[in-house]
């Protein structure tokens, strides 16, 4: 292959990775800055409106658990294309929704399911794709993917209320995100990234009975659950404290700047060492400090607390996925493990915004929810010490899988 063509394919691969990541969070984060308008139009309570954030995450979990079978049936090429098409259709339906009350609430929940399934399908397929396409730069590729994913969420939080204000139509703030989905879909077909879309056999590697796989899934779920609560309720928290919709949405976008920075910086540092624990400990400590600031001094230095939370969340998402991929050398096995970890982890994440809304409804304040997140982060900080590199060397994992397979009736 000529040098110029090879370089173009590499650049195309990076561009596609970024385009995919940018489309995986607007379906969720575009809701929160417009939540008051949505609640006014639908009559939804805080607890019930939390499902607009929780349902996509539930889909992410359930679809990720089926990721191996979906890859076998669809192939990466068809699977990612289908996921982008589902996101596009969900945004289009939100743009065209003109019902009122309960009918509008039902329509929004349906789009949350459709868009969440599309996001989940892409997320289930991307880790194996990264492991194969960027074999020598897995940590860097995962960092760029994570940064673009979080950047898309921040852009949606920042721009959705502005679009809604410009068009005097809050549905426009939700529906505008069909445009990047359409652009990514076209780019995906024009620049083949995943190669041929053939169906492949997908042998099981015994994850359902693997204790380390469950531990990784629990860890991934709990170190990242703060993100879903922030996306769903951070603007609402500051709206309650007297901020405007645009101000509170910009605060979420400000948080995203630090998520993106951490998602790029920390994996780049992780590329130079095998032990992920020191970087994970720094990231979790930043989260704990940030959430503590939201509880104790929310108006004194909100940008500082949000920056710490964003940095910690951005780093934890990328590093916990890198930690998962470290456990398997084979790209397909690594993809299966990552799909399982994300599946269970996102189901845990889905509880977080619902729990926050429930505690807000029960106590009249978000403070109790922030305390729950602080305790969760501190517990995961203690658990981090378990993930010594010597505990997940390939021979040990292979032995564990073999033992489990032989123990299966």
List strands and helices in order, with pairings:
Layout: H1 3-22, H2 26-29, H3 35-42, H4 46-49, H5 51-65, H6 67-96, H7 101-133, H8 138-167, H9 170-175, H10 178-190, H11 211-240, H12 245-270, H13 277-296, H14 302-326, H15 331-363, H16 367-383, H17 394-407
* Helix-and-strand structural type: mainly alpha
Strand content: under 5%
Could you give a short account of the major beta sheet?
Answer: none
Order of helix and strand elements from N to C terminus? HHHHHHHHHHHHHHHHH
Radius of gyration: 20 Å
The share of residues in helices is over 70%
Number of helices: 17
Which stretches of 5+ consecutive residues score pLDDT under 50? 194-203, 395-409
Distance between the termini: 50 Å
Mean pLDDT reading: 83
Total beta strands: 0
Shape descriptor = globular
Task: Summarize this structure briefly.
This protein has 409 residues and is mostly helical. The protein contains 17 helices and no strands.
